[in-house]
Every structure is written in C-alpha cells, then in structure tokens.
Amino acid sequence: MDKKERWELAWTIFVIVLFAIVIAGTLPEDFVVGGVPSVERCLVGVPTSKIIDVHITSYQYLFKINESGGGIISDELGSPYYYNLIIGHPGEYLNITMRSADVTSNFYFADYSDRVVTDQIVPGLVAYDVLPVPNITGAYAFLGGEYNGPWFSYQTGLLLSLPYSGYFTSGNITAYEKQTSVAQSVALKGDPYNPPIIGPSTSFYLVGNQCGIFNDTVPGPTLITCAHKTVTVKMYIPTPDDDRNYLYNYSVNGTAYPVTSVYVGIYAIWWNGTITLVKQVPISYGTTMCFTFNATAPAYLYGIITPVYYNYNPCGLSTKIGDLIGVQKGYIMGAWGVILVECD
Fold it and tell me: This protein's superkingdom (predicted)?
C-alpha cells in the first residue's frame, strides 16, 4: 500500500468514525418531539405552558395536524386532527414533529418579519422544528414547498394566531392588514402568502370557480367581521365540469361525476382550539348556499373543511397501466378559509 492509498484509507476510516459518533450522540433524542439538539435549544427557558406540541403528517396534497399543550387541544368536530390548520396564541412556541404518510413533501412558513421555516418531510424519516406563533394575531399561510404533483399548490394551510381571550382588537387587525399588504407588495416584510383580506363587514359573498376555490385564492379570503353581530355568508360553487377541479372526480369505470358526498358550512373556532359546528349543508352546485349566524366565537372556518379524495383514473388506465401514466390521487382542500372576529 503506497502513501496515497494509506491517506485515502485513513480519511475513509475518519469519516466512518465521525458518522458513528454523530449517530451515537443523537440517537437517544431522535424519537421525541423536538428531539434534534439544535431545536431543543430554541426552547431553553420557555415555560412549558407556552409550548404547543404539534405533530404534522404530510399526505399527498394535505397536512394532517394534531396539537396539545399551551392551552390548545386539537379537536375538530370531535376529531383530534386539524386539516391544513395550526392554532396558537401570541408568545407561544410550536414544537413541531413532521412525518410523511406517503410522499416526499415540505413544510414552508415564510413570515419574513419574524421567522422563515422550511423543512423537508421524507418518508421513513422524522423532521423537527420550532416556530414562534406570530405576535400580531391573524391568519398566516404555510405551504408545501415541494412539488409532489399537479395539486401541490393546494397544500396550503393557515397558522391562526388567536387571542388568549376576547376577540381580535381593531388595532391588531389593522396591524395584521398592514403587514400583509406590505408583504404582498414589498418583499421580506411579512408573510406574502397570506390570503386576501375582506372586511370588516357582516355580509360576505364567496364565489367558486372551476378550480374548486373561492375568489381565486387558496385558502379563500380571510374575512373580518364584528363580535356579537348577525353575520351572513353566501357561498356559490358552480357545477364541476373540468379536470382541473378536484370536485370533478372519476368512478372506477372511468365515468366523470361531481363530488356530492361533502358538506359546506360555518364552524366556530374557540380559544382552546376546539372547532364546533355552527351550520352545514350538503354541497349544492349552481345555487347560492346562505349561512346566517351570531358571531360569538373569536374565529370561524367556512366552506369545505374536510379533505376531498380525488382520483383521476379515466377508464381505469392508471390501474391497468400504472407506471406508464402514473396514478393521480390524493386528499385535497381548496374551497375554505377563516373569519376573524374583532371587537373594540
């Protein structure tokens, strides 16, 4: 063995030993929430009452989320999971664990005025991060930053920074609107992915399109209304007739049909993260669905808040040919959004 070969062997052994040290040092921490040491350091000195443990499972086009701690417990209509939604209070920290159910994905949160987070979510591995809940209450967008199919842009959710008690103040709503406006016109000033803001008002009309979304945005516009007022929200969804619309699905024999097994409604979000039914109806295409309610909760969800299973398989070709044309399926949300309730 000449000198060059000895150096190569020594370098190879050094790298192997280094990897062994890293694995041995981090393995005990790799299977707990926030287990990565660099993440744990972000929570040093933070009271446990200010920490929300967040478990995110990424599916094809969807985030399924479970939360506990910090006065928040995920409970959506009796289910322990939210879909494309995270809830927290200002000053709290989200201690996030991320896993993939079936696809390489990404969690991307870009509040340029505070913190930018981007994490790869890979099948078989666990990702961790810590994210402060924005101090300005409001609805902040997060998204799947990894292309995983033509519906990947629908994998967009909202981090709802909710008051501990009471309602959104007009001053805070103004600050949120200003930051969002600046972020969408001047880069690196806030979250540029926030939905458009409509209001304050007590009457809203949301119009769907052949992409299965309201007012041409995912999620739909963030609506601002007033506490203890009677609020009317009207929603119109046209009859799906286009393959770009996830509400236009296919039967096993390849016949296209509009999805009818979903509900459209209004749902209250309470201070502890519980989501309860206000009103809902089976989806009705081509007609205006009208919802009237008294705004007593600090926030609401509207639209279709449960994911729709989409399977593009005309004439069974994806099943029969498989790898030749691929399989286009997944859980999708598009026609939904939030309502923030303000009170002076």
Answer: Archaea
For the ranges 185-194, 209-218, 243-252, 334-343, the lowest mean pLDDT is seen at 185-194
Burial of 17 (0-12, 13-18, 19+ CB in 10 A): exposed
Residue predicted with more confidence, 117 or 306: 306
The answer to whether 288 touches 316, Cβ cutoff 8 Å, is no
d(CA 232, CA 264): 14
Output the pTM of the full model: 0.86
Alpha-carbon gap, residue 93 to 161, rounded angstroms: 11
Q: Where does the pLDDT of residue 28 fall: very low under 50, low under 70, confident under 90, or very high at 90 and above?
A: very low
Q: Which CATH number fits domain 37-342: 2.60.40.420, 1.10.1660.10, 3.40.190.10, 3.30.300.30?
A: 2.60.40.420
Report the 10 Å Cβ neighbour count for 30. 12
- Taking only the tens place, the pLDDT of each residue in 42-60 is 888 899 999 999 999 999 8
Give dist(CA 125, CA 331) in Å, integer.
22
Q: How many CA atoms lie within 13 A of 46 on its CB side?
A: 21
Structure token pair of residue 108:
């991307």
Map out the domains of the chain as residue ranges.
Answer: 37-342
